[in-house]
């Protein structure tokens, strides 16, 4: 068989479908392999370009295949879909992956390390627990309102719930206390995860340098490291900010460009953390006498606070890229005093 130039792999849980083609795009091989046979088969192939969709399990397989000497690329699924011809099946998907990867202007996803995947898993677990805790709080508010109790908003009211349970049915009070106990359990789990994230952050030099940026703490710094790594695959800070959806959407027709709201592409969790950090900085902007404080006050005079928050989040993302890609840490203006 002619030596393949590109091998596209459609990942699955138990079965993997391969499509190989030469540098002219001529198909050479179509084969389905089990999980146990994938790596031995690729080990017998000469070094070539191996391409997969950036989906579940892709980072593990990419690292394993890289160790065999192949050049591995990950293609975002939305860039593969336009190349799917006729009816969809696994071999057609593998061929579409090859076609997408052969485009000279194709954008590839970065391969994450195990440490980055660990940070991402911790953040996703914390995010899920926070959402579950919010659901429990909303459930308590709704149930108590049905019995004529308007519970104040916030965590403090949940903690002193016993003061609102007088003259309520005994069975209902028992149910409310079970939900309150579940709330406290979730709070303990969230605190434990946050402590683990902070410990990992303190041991990571890049994360410690990121925390010198105003508005970025251990949670946001670890999320940036888990998403971007050393940021070397981004050409500029603007490209990194654009990958997080912190730049305006553009709609142009008839030679008339129009800028809309932010695109909201990429990692929504990291984007929210950056915007929340930006709002924390804005609350104390009057206590800053550096150039960042001057810029915030000047922009706040002519733009809505939501626009200012997104603009500051964009600036924070660009500074984070510079720190990761070029080293160093954030340095305020000489002689500045900060809150």
Automatic annotation (TrEMBL):
<dbReference type="Pfam" id="PF01548">
    <property type="entry name" value="DEDD_Tnp_IS110"/>
</dbReference>
<feature type="domain" description="Transposase IS116/IS110/IS902 C-terminal">
    <location>
        <begin position="207"/>
        <end position="287"/>
    </location>
</feature>
<dbReference type="InterPro" id="IPR002525">
    <property type="entry name" value="Transp_IS110-like_N"/>
</dbReference>
<dbReference type="InterPro" id="IPR003346">
    <property type="entry name" value="Transposase_20"/>
</dbReference>
<protein>
    <submittedName>
        <fullName>Uncharacterized protein</fullName>
    </submittedName>
</protein>
<feature type="coiled-coil region">
    <location>
        <begin position="176"/>
        <end position="210"/>
    </location>
</feature>
<dbReference type="InterPro" id="IPR047650">
    <property type="entry name" value="Transpos_IS110"/>
</dbReference>
<dbReference type="GO" id="GO:0006313">
    <property type="term" value="P:DNA transposition"/>
</dbReference>
<keyword id="KW-0175">Coiled coil</keyword>
<feature type="domain" description="Transposase IS110-like N-terminal">
    <location>
        <begin position="7"/>
        <end position="146"/>
    </location>
</feature>
<dbReference type="GO" id="GO:0003677">
    <property type="term" value="F:DNA binding"/>
</dbReference>
<dbReference type="Pfam" id="PF02371">
    <property type="entry name" value="Transposase_20"/>
</dbReference>
<dbReference type="GO" id="GO:0004803">
    <property type="term" value="F:transposase activity"/>
</dbReference>
């Amino acid at each position: 068989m002619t030596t393949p130039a590109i091998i596209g792999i459609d990942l699955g849980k138990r079965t993997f479908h391969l499509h190989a083609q030469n540098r002219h795009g001529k198909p050479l091989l179509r084969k389905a392999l089990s999980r146990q046979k994938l790596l031995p088969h690729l080990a017998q192939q000469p070094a070539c370009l191996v391409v997969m969709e950036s989906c579940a399990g892709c980072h593990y397989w990419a690292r394993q295949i890289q160790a065999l000497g192949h050049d591995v690329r990950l293609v975002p699924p939305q860039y593969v879909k336009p190349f799917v011809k006729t009816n969809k099946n696994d071999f057609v998907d593998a061929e579409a992956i090859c076609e997408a990867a052969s485009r000279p202007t194709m954008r590839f996803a970065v391969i994450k390390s195990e440490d980055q995947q660990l940070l991402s898993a911790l953040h996703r677990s914390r995010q899920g627990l926070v959402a579950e805790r919010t659901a429990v709080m909303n459930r308590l508010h709704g149930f108590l309102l049905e019995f004529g109790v308007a519970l104040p908003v916030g965590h403090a009211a949940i903690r002193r719930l016993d003061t609102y349970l007088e003259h309520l049915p005994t069975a209902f009070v028992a149910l409310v206390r079970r939900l309150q106990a579940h709330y406290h359990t979730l709070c303990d789990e969230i605190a434990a995860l946050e402590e683990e994230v902070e410990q990992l952050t303190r041991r990571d030099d890049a994360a410690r340098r990121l925390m010198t940026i105003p508005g970025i703490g251990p949670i946001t710094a670890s999320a940036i490291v888990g998403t971007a790594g050393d940021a070397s695959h981004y050409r500029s800070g603007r490209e990194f900010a654009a990958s997080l959806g912190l730049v305006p959407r553009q709609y142009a027709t008839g030679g008339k460009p129009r800028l809309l709201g932010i695109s909201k592409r990429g990692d929504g969790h990291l984007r929210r953390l950056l915007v929340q950090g930006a709002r924390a900085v804005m609350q104390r902007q009057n206590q800053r006498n550096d150039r960042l404080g001057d810029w915030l006050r000047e922009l706040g005079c002519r733009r809505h606070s939501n626009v200012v928050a997104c603009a500051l989040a964009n600036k924070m993302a660009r500074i984070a890229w510079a720190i990761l890609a070029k080293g160093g840490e954030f340095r305020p203006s000489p002689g500045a005093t900060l809150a």
